[in-house]
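Final report, Chapter 2: Outcomes

The project's central promise was a pipeline that accepts a single protein chain and returns its three-dimensional structure in a standardized token representation, suitable for archiving and comparison. That pipeline is now operational. To close this chapter, we reproduce one record exactly as it appears in the project archive, with the input sequence first and the structure output second.
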Amino acid sequence: RTKVVRTTTTTTTITGLCIDDQQQQQQQQQQQQQAAVGTVSTTNKRTNTNQKQQSSRKIKGRTGADMGATVRRLARSRQTAEQQTNQLQTVGDLTKLTAAIDKRLLQHSSQSLFANDGLVRQSPDPLGALLEYGDENNNAADTNAAVKAHEIVVVFGKPLVDDQVTVEYAARLRTLARLLSDHEMESPDLICFCGGISRQHDNHIADADAGFLFFQQLCIKEGISLSNVKLFVDRRSTSEEKALQCVTSHVMKEHVSEWLAVSQQTESLTDEYGMERRGPLRKKLHLHFTLLSTEYHLCNLNDIHHRSPNQSLLRPIEKLRTVDRSHEEIMSEYDDEISAFRRSLQSSSTDEKSAAGEQQQQQQQRRTRPIINGIIDCSWSFQYSTYPYSYTTDDASAFMGRCFLLGEALLPLSINMKGVVAEREFLQRDNYVTAASIRHKLVALMEDLYKTSPGLRSGLREITTDHKARKTVDIVLEGATLSLGRCIDLLRPAGLHQSSVTKAEYTKALRWLDHCRNQIQTYCDPDRPLDLYEWGTMGCLSSQQSGDYDDDENWDGGTGI
């Protein structure tokens, strides 16, 4: 028993010692693990600290660079804002902004239109624009030389004086005769003489009839054959637009169907999208109009066409073009536009009657229009004759001729202002520039008349314009210059883009402008009837009144070409 107890005790002791050893080993392992974990955590902490320090250094470096860029951006934006504020303070509104833009544009141009005082010293050259258009048209004609065009010559009439052809009208007709005799113009398919009876001059003969008879005499004397040329005399038109309407209407009714029948040109096999056309191909026809008149007249037509396209006097020719629509549809739209615009210019008292009359006339014209199954393309060019009183040696006639040309140059502004009053277009600056320049020229002419040309003034006083009121040319010019000055004063804010102008002011300015033009047209036109020995000849003005060459070989026919 004693041995057993001892053995048990020894075993228990050994077991306890083993348990203690295991616990100690576990504690040591735990301590080692904790120490290892502490070491790792310390290393991690140190690593994290180093990373944080490095990242903080990087952040500090980046923040400094970003702050520098931000400061620079803020400085630039502040400077830009200050500049914009200064510009807003100097510009203020849209009109001043436009003026500032124009000023910058004019700085790069060779010649400025404005002086320091804001007054116009120089105007565009209408004849230069006319010649540039002619050059472009000739180049286009050379490019399309393979396309045969039917030539139509339109001779604009000049009101007769005492039912007789005047010197200026004869210059236009002589220009046409010279072009045909010198073969500078191919034999046209159609020659149209336009001009009705001028009631203002108490005439009884249409301008077109007298011009046609004069031209026939020229052809007989110069041996010009008109056997293959068709002639048309328009006795109804009293304006350029109506004249071209009559011409285009005559061409559509009498000639287009015939010319399309013999045309060898057809539309392309594919359309503008590259798709093959279905059905028979339509025939093509090209019509070219040569507009013949004095240079100032053609310059006005060209200026109005570019500055007031909605009121262009050449729109009847444009409306002949048919590409994707029928001629009937295009002409109907044109008639509607013209009637609507005319109604907007008329007073309310006569609006209903005139509108009803125009609608009946348009319906009748639409019934008589032929249906054209073809494609018509149109173009035009200008052929001018020089104004005969620009090279006369008679001081009084030359002075009146210069004043007359200045008054005629106001027509584009008058057309433009009618559209402005009707609220269909804006005032064109080019028209204002021209009018301001004309006013300066009239003032200069009047100053020269009173200061340096007493003989000219006495000569003009002998020309009485109104026997009842005893008005003379110099008095009429004073009133016309004053009216134009009042018109310019009303238009100056809009013409220089300084501020807006009310409709009432535009209407008042238009009345002053019409008064100026009517006075100059009525009393300052030096045109006179031809003498007996000048009728039917290619001669020039008489040497007593014009100072031109009496020798026909040394005279250029008054064309300036």
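Archive annotation: The mean pLDDT is 75.
This record, like all others produced under the grant, will remain available to the consortium after the project formally closes.
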